[in-house]
Design brief:
Distance between the termini: 32 Å
InterPro entries: DUF5601 (IPR041545), VPS9 (IPR003123), Vps9-like (IPR045046), VPS9_dom_sf (IPR037191)
Shape: globular
Oligomer: single chain
Radius of gyration: 23 Å
Organism: Sorghum bicolor
Order of helices and strands: HHHHHHHHHHHHHHH
CATH class of the largest domain: Mainly Alpha
Structural class: mainly alpha
CATH architecture of the largest domain: Up-down Bundle
Pfam families: DUF5601, VPS9
GO molecular function, one term: small GTPase binding
Number of strands: 0
Protein name: VPS9 domain-containing protein
């Protein structure tokens, strides 16, 4: 299984950079720099930017195939060059193209907070996952692979994280099918597990990552197995956005009770200095405490050895909330401060 950090995923990029440094590549490099600079003259628009990038990749594919540096190159070598081109271009344009709109930031936050609530009560049986498919070790591996998606800037590397997660699930299903002489029905088993893994992982900026891959991964690569896995993760995201009682095989009152309890637990974990003091007498009193006191740091003065398992989980949840908010705020501030000269200079400095 290929990982975004594996050696196999990187030679095409370094070979591409090496060729771009050669005098014979001056015409190609000028085209790339001109394309990058052109982005600074227009306001970000995800769909339009995606069309521009895809058209540029198509144009550059023809230029590379006809270029002396790739004379007599195999199709695989051409593909490696195009992979290097995609990573170079999209790394340069990442701040311009990833999560660029307020709507994206809001959607990311809403999904993350929704998943944070679902994590507190959703179990495999709520998604009709049969016990024979329960495998905590495989699920944990899939969770870790999906959580890596926000660590990379290139569309291919983000997609590899998604692929790795989905392949873990697929391998689990194949192994169970073979060892139990059981015929599995594809998406009927795969999608519920992927939804559960997504809830367990709560990957940062899930919406923006999926949108980024859809728009900026070369279209010729979003086919077959890749397209299937990506489509399933998009379906998992939509399931989470639209989740209700019936989709979790619950009564409406039970679902609402779980959601309210999860909200209250989240508020308590943020507002209470320590779990030993107990929760506020009501959600309203708790919210008033948050509003009046501002952000609280309940574990700032705690010793690690003194924390019980529930407090450790609360501290981890708080950490994830802080990191998510800090990431979104930092990105917004960077977008406000950057100007055309800075962007052009960063391209020239490359």
């Amino acid at each position: 299984m290929e990982s975004p950090t594996s050696t196999a995923s990187r030679p095409d990029f370094y070979d591409f950079l090496d060729r771009m440094r050669r005098p014979a590549a001056a015409d190609l490099f000028r085209s790339i720099k001109s394309f990058l600079v052109s982005f600074s003259f227009h306001a970000p628009n995800a769909e339009e930017d995606g069309c521009k990038v895809q058209a540029f990749f198509t144009e550059m594919e023809s230029a590379i195939r006809d270029h002396p540096l790739w004379a007599n190159a195999t199709n695989q070598e051409i593909d490696h060059a195009l992979e290097g081109l995609e990573k170079y271009v999209m790394t340069k344009l990442f701040d311009r193209t990833f999560g660029t709109s307020t709507e994206d930031a809001v959607t990311d936050m809403e999904i993350s907070e929704k998943i944070g609530l679902l994590q507190q009560f959703v179990k495999p049986h709520h998604l009709d996952i049969p016990k024979i498919l329960h495998n905590e070790a495989s699920w944990l591996l899939a969770v870790k692979e999906l959580q890596k998606v926000n660590s990379f800037k290139a569309p291919r590397e983000k997609l590899l994280c998604i692929m790795s997660c989905c392949q873990v699930i697929n391998n689990l299903l194949l192994n169970i099918s073979m060892s139990n002489d059981r015929t599995l029905s594809g998406a009927d088993e795969f999608l519920p597990i992927l939804i559960y893994i997504t809830i367990k992982a709560n990957p940062p900026q899930l919406h923006s990552n999926l949108k980024f891959v859809q728009l900026f991964r070369r279209e010729t690569k979003l086919i077959s197995e890749v397209e299937y896995y990506l489509t399933n993760l998009i379906s998992a995201k939509m399931f989470i956005i639209d989740v209700n009682a019936s989709s979790l095989s619950m009564e409406g009152s039970e679902f609402q009770k779980h959601m309210e309890s999860a909200r209250l637990a989240t508020q308590v974990s943020v507002a209470s200095p320590s779990s030993s003091q107990g929760p506020p007498t009501s959600a309203r009193a708790n919210q008033e405490e948050i509003d009046m006191a501002g952000p609280r740091f309940p574990f700032m003065d705690s010793e690690t050895e003194s924390l019980n398992p529930r407090e450790v989980k609360q501290m981890h949840d708080l950490y994830r909330q802080v990191v998510t908010r800090y990431t979104l705020l930092s990105k917004a501030l960077r977008k406000l401060s950057i100007d055309e000269d800075q962007l052009i200079n960063s391209v020239h400095d490359s």
